[in-house]
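in:
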């Protein structure tokens, strides 16, 4: 996978944004850390795929509900209602990026240690259900 320098910076910003959001949640929903994480995530996404494609992604007709929830949660975090804001953001995030979960699960299943863990009988069934894989019966 070849990335330009701008895209590499975008990946770093997005990862740092997720880390800040996670740290904000762990530190009792600190609104400042969560808000900084949101800004870094959006900046990173814009640098990875470009500003125009980012705007197109968030304004697509089938993604409007997720976009509205994500940005409403972001505004709630900014006015210091961080618990409600992060819950609404999580709903929006799942609506926006839920289509990518099967791809991520397939990628993780091909990694050495994580793939073996995800192939365990009980874990495999739970992950398949969460990722949206359908039980395909032979015809």
């Amino acid at each position: 996978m070849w990335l330009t320098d701008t895209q590499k910076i975008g990946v770093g910003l997005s990862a740092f944004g997720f880390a800040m959001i996670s740290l904000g949640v762990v530190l009792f929903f600190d609104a400042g850390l969560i808000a900084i994480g949101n800004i870094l995530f959006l900046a990173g996404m814009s640098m990875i795929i470009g500003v125009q494609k980012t705007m197109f992604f968030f304004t697509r007709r089938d993604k409007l509900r997720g976009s509205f929830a994500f940005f409403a949660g972001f505004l709630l975090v900014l006015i210091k209602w961080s618990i409600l804001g992060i819950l609404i953001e999580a709903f929006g995030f799942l609506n926006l990026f839920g289509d990518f979960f099967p791809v991520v699960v397939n990628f993780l299943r091909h990694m050495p240690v994580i793939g073996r863990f995800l192939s365990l009988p009980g874990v495999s069934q739970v992950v398949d259900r969460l990722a949206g894989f359908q039980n395909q019966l032979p015809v």
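note: Residues 41 and 91 are 16 Å apart (CA to CA).
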